[in-house]
């Protein structure tokens, strides 16, 4: 059964508490929190302060996805805000190994996200040091985009790499996940499904989470 991680990027920010409480009561496993800086991606979302407010609404895992440049400058602030997982982008880290060590030393699980154009092979020598890979199935920056089909191939390749090295790294898929493509994504080898629009733009988000969970 896949881990379901609704992305609060698609929530109504004027009723964030209500949406957080809904997620907390639902079958959602994780809260996926998208941090954007307007530099690495062409959009700005929220920072540690909002993460801390969200943290205080739930005991569930807060899975923070940093779409920012120089993530090393903010890792400590996100730890203080209560992040459980901290994921940085491969494309934003010149010294990725150092970034990963910093995240782990701060006591968080470490993830690496890759953009749609980045092949999974580049992770070969960092896989053993991380807890999860976030495979972007849209170009990061906005919710509500369409799933890029080539991602399925990348998931299968990554799963093989993880198995070859006998590792326990989780594969998270982020972007354009729907009730229609979730089965194919899980069958390819995904462990965690992020879903923003599919959950929050549906008539009944709790029921949609149930449906995702039962796929
Ligand atoms: C995209 C974000 C995603 C996004 C997913 O930049 O990283 O987490 O919110 O949203 P949907 O599921 O609507 O594509
Ligand atoms: Zn995300």
CATH topology term: TIM Barrel
CATH class: Alpha Beta
Present as ligands are: D-xylitol-5-phosphate, zinc ion
Backbone structural class: alpha/beta
Beta percentage is 15-25%
Count of strand segments: 8
Indicate the CATH architecture: Alpha-Beta Barrel
Q: Largest sheet, if any?
A: 8 strands, parallel
Q: pLDDT below 50 for ≥5 consecutive residues: which ranges?
A: none
- Which radius of gyration do the C-alpha atoms yield? 16 Å
Number of domains: 1
Mean pLDDT metric: 98
Q: Which strand order do you get reading across the main beta sheet?
A: 1-8-7-6-5-4-3-2
Give the structure's gist in a few sentences:
With 215 residues, the chain is of the alpha/beta class. It has helices at 16-25, 48-55, 75-81, 96-105, 151-164, 182-188, 197-200, 205-213, and strands at residues 3-6, 30-36, 61-67, 85-89, 109-114, 132-136, 170-174, 192-195. 32% of the residues lie in helices and 20% in strands.
What would you say this structure looks like, in words?
With 215 residues, the protein is of the alpha/beta class. The chain has helices at residues 16-25, 48-55, 75-81, 96-105, 151-164, 182-188, 197-200, 205-213, and strands spanning 3-6, 30-36, 61-67, 85-89, 109-114, 132-136, 170-174, 192-195. The protein has one domain: TIM Barrel (Alpha-Beta Barrel). It is built from eight helices and eight strands; from the N terminus they run βαβαβαβαββαβαβαα. It has an eight-stranded parallel sheet with strand order 1-8-7-6-5-4-3-2. α5 (151-164) links the parallel β6 and β7 (170-174). α2 (48-55) packs parallel to α3 (75-81). It is globular, with a radius of gyration of 16 Å. The protein starts with a strand and ends with a helix. The model has no long low-confidence stretch (mean pLDDT 98). Residues 7, 32, 34, 65, 174, 194 line the site of zinc ion.
């Amino acid at each position: 059964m896949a881990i379901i991680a609704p992305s609060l990027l698609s929530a109504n920010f004027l009723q964030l508490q209500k949406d957080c409480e809904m997620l907390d009561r639902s079958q959602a496993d994780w809260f996926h929190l998208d941090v954007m800086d307007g530099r690495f991606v062409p959009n700005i979302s929220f920072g540690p302060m909002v993460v801390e407010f969200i943290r205080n609404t739930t005991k569930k895992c807060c899975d923070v996805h940093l779409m920012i440049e120089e993530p090393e400058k903010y890792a400590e602030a996100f730890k203080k805000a209560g992040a459980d997982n901290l994921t940085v982008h491969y494309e934003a880290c010149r010294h990725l190994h150092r970034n990963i060590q910093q995240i782990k030393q701060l006591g968080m699980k470490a993830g690496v996200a890759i953009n749609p154009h980045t092949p999974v092979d580049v992770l070969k020598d960092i896989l053993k040091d991380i807890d999860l890979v976030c495979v972007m199935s849209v170009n990061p920056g906005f919710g509500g985009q369409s799933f890029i089909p080539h991602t399925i191939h990348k998931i299968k390749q990554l799963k093989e790499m993880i198995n070859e090295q006998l590792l326990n790294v989780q594969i998270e898929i982020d972007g354009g996940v729907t009730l229609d493509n979730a089965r194919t994504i899980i069958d390819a080898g995904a462990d965690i499904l992020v879903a923003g629009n599919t959950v929050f733009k549906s008539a009944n988000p709790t029921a949609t989470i149930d449906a995702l969970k039962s796929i």
